[in-house]
Design a protein that fits this description.
By secondary structure, the protein is an alpha/beta fold. The chain has helices spanning 38-52, 60-69, 77-98, 102-105, 128-137, 157-174, 190-200, 220-226, 240-249, 263-276, 289-301, 353-362; strands at 3-11, 15-22, 27-30, 113-119, 142-146, 179-183, 207-209, 231-233, 253-254, 280-281, 308-309, 334-335, 338-340, 371-372, 378-379.
């Protein structure tokens, strides 16, 4: 078997898909994207395609090694995301060739259901109660929301109280039997994080995500020691080596992204590394159907998996939805807030190629907002 063609597609609202075709007719799909920087990732896929076209798609590990290490300059979100999407597609091909789901190729399932959470925004605290209630009524047992909007580096009492009100509102709606994650989104300075984490303890979030920016990883040991709440991070880390310091610091939940951190091949290694530290895996995935399908294959076979992010109905999805690009939505049907294991081959989904090609003709140029403080200076989004 040989790879004969590699194509990429920009699919609204903000995704990139890659199609890898073989001379036997087997086609694999992946999702290589950096949200807001889709075009550079698409170009990186084109460069890597020069190596892959004509190669045997079954040699996944060898290709991963060459794609990540074959250039003098390595790493970074653009390259690792391009590799991630191609890696997903190669696993998809291998599963389809053998007629088995990818989780069987990774050692077989350890669970039948994958618990997922729904996003409820949180930038606007006035919307939290209704949004959490709606997801609870939809059958979800967990939600996640942003802990704040823009926040000054040394927060006022009003800013602190607004964060606490969000958490209090979520806990009131959910009761004690359900969970919520609170995402600081890198908007919170180290000083504000030290102040907020102990105050949030009474509301018992499942975790606080990205308590500080990756730039401030050196403060993680102090935050872990000061926080009674499990800390989570990883969406802006791109290799297992970058996860070592957070694990040493005592971070409880790792959140690598299967479309950023080297794909299925690297995420399974990150999961194994986390297991040796007693940490859990909760993959980041506010993306499209192929990324979610890849996450599910990992979740079914990962012992220390905690919960799965997913983007159906997320506030970023304007102009298109995850289910718009699949032939059959059944693999993404929720059962009491969980996704069920199937034995469909490869990544377990059938991509609607006609819909993808039509979407690419329209394309997208999604960019994240640029926020500013009241004095006009840059604010973290």
């Amino acid at each position: 078997m040989q790879i004969t063609r590699i194509e990429t597609f920009l699919a609204p609202p903000r995704w990139t898909f890659v199609r890898v075709e073989t001379d036997t007719g087997v086609v694999g799909w992946g999702e290589p994207v950096v949200e807001g920087r889709a075009e550079p990732v698409r170009a990186a896929v084109d460069v890597l395609a020069e190596y892959l076209v004509g190669a045997d798609p079954m040699r996944i590990e060898d290709h991963w090694q060459v794609m990540t290490k074959g250039g003098f300059y390595r790493g970074g979100p653009v390259l690792s995301s391009a590799v991630a999407g191609l890696d997903q597609a190669l696993w998809d091909i291998k599963g389809k060739h053998y007629g088995v789901p990818v989780h069987q190729l990774l050692g077989g399932p350890v669970r039948d259901r994958v618990r997922a959470y729904a996003w409820v925004g949180g930038d606007d605290p006035a919307e939290v109660r209704d949004a959490v209630t709606a997801q609870l009524e939809a059958g979800f047992t967990a939600v996640k929301m942003n802990g704040c909007g823009r926040m000054t580096p040394v927060a006022s009492r009003a800013e602190v109280r607004a964060v606490l009100r969000r958490a209090e509102t979520a806990r009131q709606v959910l009761g004690d039997a359900h969970d919520f994650g609170l995402d600081f989104h890198g908007r919170v300075s180290p000083a504000n994080a030290r102040r907020l984490l102990p105050l949030l303890a009474e509301y018992a979030p499942m975790f606080v995500e990205e308590p500080v920016l990756p730039d401030h990883a050196h403060v993680l040991p102090d935050l872990v020691n000061a926080s009674p709440i499990p800390l989570a991070l990883g969406e802006r880390l791109y290799s297992r080596r970058e996860f070592l310091a957070p694990l040493h610091a005592g971070v409880a939940v790792l959140q690598p992204d299967v479309s950023h951190a080297g794909g299925i091949s690297e995420l399974r290694r990150i999961a194994a590394l986390a297991e040796t530290y007693g940490a859990q895996l909760a993959p980041h995935c506010p993306l499209g159907p192929i990324a979610l399908a890849a996450c599910l294959q990992l979740a079914f076979t990962t012992p220390n998996f905690l919960i799965q992010e997913q983007s159906i109905g997320i506030h970023y999805n304007r102009g298109a939805e995850l289910l718009d690009y699949v032939v059959d939505p059944e693999p993404f049907r929720f059962d009491r807030g969980a996704l069920l294991r199937t034995e469909r081959p490869g990544l377990g989904i059938d991509v609607d190629e006609a819909a993808v090609r039509a979407a690419d003709r329209k394309g997208h140029a999604w960019r994240n907002p640029v926020w500013r403080h009241q004095d006009g200076s840059f604010a973290e989004w």
